[in-house]
Amino acid sequence: MSDLERRLLDALPVDGDAEDDAWRLAHAAFVRRRPTGVRIATRARRPLVALAATACLVLVATMSSAGSVVVDLVGGRAEPTTGRGQHHQRVHVAVPPGGRLLVVSGGWASVLAHGSAPRRLAPADEATFSAFGRYVAVARGSRISVLALDGRRVWALQERHPVHTLRWSPDGLRLAYRTGGLLKIVDGNGERARTVSRATGRAVAWRPGPDAVLAYQRTAHAVALIDVATGRDVGRLRMAGVLRALTWSPDGARLVAIAPHELRWFDRALHVLSRRRPHGAARFVGAAFAPRGHRLAVLIARHGRTSLTAGGVRVAQGRGLRAVVWAPDGRRLLVPAGTLRFLPGLAVPGPAGAIAWRQATR
Amino acid sequence: MTVAARTVPDRTASRPAVGRRDERALVRAAQQGDAAAFEALFRAHWPTAYRAAWMIVRDRQLAEDIAQEAFVAAAGALDRFDRRRPFAPWLRTIVARRAIDAARTLTVRREVGEDALAGLGTTDGAPELSDPRLLDALAALPLEQRAVIVLRHLLGMRTGEIAKALGLPRGTVNSRLRRGLDALRPVLEDERR
After folding, report:
1. Considering only CA atoms, which of B117, B109, B126 is closest in space to residue B54?
2. What residues of chain A, 104 to 163, have a C-beta less than 8 Å from chain B?
């Protein structure tokens, strides 16, 4: 062994706790592995797909922007569960290295990384990634905690009222949240929690870009834009009804406000570019811009079923769909859902392939 | 970001070495479903996998993730592994490729909010280094040189194996090795004096 080899081997201690954590996941992967031939044979026959047991009740899913994360259920392994007469399959979520998926499920925030089981972080009602996915902020009751990805708490903040709508700013320097009818901001290091404005509803969205501009629903009839660095109002628009969501295009040039009966596009100066109303009894549920901003995915509910459209074309439908998230490469869509029948041949128009994140249909 | 070092329990000293023939037997047993055999492989290779990933990405948590993902991938692909071939180079190639990919991603996108979290008096769990000069010198190398040095001198991969794993000509691997070692020479020679 050369001097360099010996010194490299001795230079860095190995954390036994991390090793044990890794072993648990490696062991889980070892236990669930199966010969390739069986997998291929069953894959073609089974029409229903379900998530692994670890992702049972997916309520919220957000993608970290760290690296080119792709959640690939199509490329994932479809496996039958054991036992006769069971007609569902498990799918392993395959997230390539460099990015992670944050899930709030069953009262816990968990992070999924490539090829591994979810890593449970902390009890949570809501959670949000930091700008590049290295930290997670979770809200549980009236408490906000910021955690490293291995679950270590970086800081915590106790509010008097329950905390909702946690949003980490695109530059990672601030967290916005709602509590007790107020919109508040706290610095990324947990200091200087301060009230920005009163607010209602759950629509809060940071404008992408270097300036710290936040769009939020101030009253039942008004949406406001505020520069939180200066405290200055930079825009206001009237829109009746409680908004389901506000979402900015990735370049910050357009804002979409989604109310149950109306979807409106605005430019940066809050001039209306277009309006859409749903047909008949349909209601808008949510929307999300593709990462390049060239396509909008919209969820529309009608008679208990929810349709997912992307680029104006329906790509999926199911029950209980409440949110939609694009993978950062813009090739796939995640739909955290109660149940959704697997629809073979889903396709987003153009070069992208659509995929929904779904739960077991038993 | 200034971070406090932390001491971690290291089991390296108590870890039994696994010979080539033992390793082949362990792989065979693991393929037949013996979890203890797979654990023996895991325990034997975890330290090197983790160290290699850390030295390439220089981030404890990311290195743990990379090593962990490599073992999860290895577990999933174990049934397809040809047990006539040695296990270690196969696993090391998985680790190396993942670590290099992650390092490239890190280079392109650094966490922007990191400064805002500095000065909190908290630790990100950076390990206590027993040879910080060498590791700092290694970290200062360009990724291409750092990676081949880690692959050659920590993972013990041959030049041909590195070339195959990274999809590079042998000559390129050799020149990167030579340049990297030249840059490390002052640190290595200081130690000998």
Report:
1. B126
2. 113-116, 130-132, 134-135, 148-150, 152, 154-155
